Amino acid sequence: SYVLTQSPSVSVAPGKTATITCGGNTIGTRSVHWYRQRPGQAPVVVIYYDSGRPSGIPERFSGSNSGNTATLTISRVEAGDEGDYYCQVWDVPSEHVVFGGGTKLTVL
Amino acid sequence: EVQLVESGGGLVQPGGSLRLSCAVSGFIFSDHYMDWVRQAPGKGLEWVGRTRNKANSYITEYAASVKGRFTISREASKNSLYLQMNSLKTEDTAVYYCARSESVTGHMDVWGKGTTVTVSS
Questions:
Q1: Is A27 helix (H, G, I), strand (E, B) or coil?
Q2: Rounded Cα–Cα distance for residues A71 and B115 (Å)
Q3: Contact check, Cβ <8 Å, A48/B114
Q4: Exposed, middle or buried by CB within 10 Å (0-12, 13-18, 19+), for B55?
Q5: pLDDT at residue B106 is higher than 90
Q6: Is residue B12 within 8 Å of residue B119, measured between CB atoms?
Q7: pLDDT, tens digit, 9 for 90 and up, residues A18-77
Q8: pLDDT tens, position by position, B49-96
Q9: φ, ψ (nearest 5 deg) of residue B30
């Protein structure tokens, strides 16, 4: 089955840029979605189809996807950006949704 | 307002059964793919399964970890999604979320708040 690999944690100072990656075999050929989950809350999509941004998500959030790595970039990080971030794809061969293991973003 | 509200969680013994419900409002239920996603305590998100939309015959797919034990269904007249869970194991303990999917490859754009299932003797 298809596997998505994320680093367990990323720490960044306020105002700096956070980069969260999601690795997968030829992930660049798939559509990647990113979710943020705050403690005790349901996930919320922050990037869809690699780089689309839902209404209400700041322009500071951006995404890219190429080769074997998809990337979520958060510019000018704020304390409110803290949470767990998950990448997700649809795996055509298995017809399964696949989530990455999640990355905990800590704002120092 | 688009809304998903889960219910039916609780404490159940290993080997038991439970049916979760997800009440849908604010959109045309039959037009959308619907997913169940769970999260064990302190763990990440795990996809449980999906029902496709009416145009795709409401076909269902399941994660290997629940296939043969869990069944997803819909009741259009009640705008409700269900997850029937049988032969429950302690490792099924989790918060269960229902979510609306934008399309087969799309993102989950609306989520419920979740309902907690605890499998323990």
A1: helix
A2: 31
A3: no
A4: exposed
A5: no
A6: yes
A7: 999 999 999 999 999 999 999 999 999 999 999 999 999 999 999 999 999 999 999 999
A8: 999 999 999 999 999 999 999 999 999 999 999 999 999 999 999 999
A9: -70, -15
Rounded Cα distance, B109 and B82, in Å: 19
Minimal CA–CA distance to B58: which of B30, B77, B84?
B30
pLDDT band at B102 (very low <50, low <70, confident <90, very high): confident
Query: What does the alpha-carbon distance between residue B94 and residue B43 come to, in Å, rounded to a whole number?
Result: 9
Q: Which of residues 40-99 of B touch A (CB under 8 A)?
A: 44-47, 50, 61, 63-64, 97
- The answer to whether A42 touches B111, Cβ cutoff 8 Å, is yes
Q: Do A35 and B108 touch (CB under 8 A)?
A: yes
For residue range A73-103, what is the model confidence (pLDDT) as tens digits? 999 999 999 999 999 999 999 999 999 999 9
B3 inside 8 A of chain A by CB: no
pLDDT greater than 90 at residue B114: yes
Residue B108 with chain A: CB contacts under 8 Å: 33, 35, 43, 45, 88
Residue (of A47, A54, A93) closest to A70 by Cα position:
A47
> Which residues does chain B have within 8 Å of residue A98's beta carbon, measured at their own beta carbons?
47
Query: Which phi and psi angles does A71 have, rounded to 5°?
Result: -130, 135
In the structure encoding, which two tokens stand for residue A108, read together?
A: 């120092």
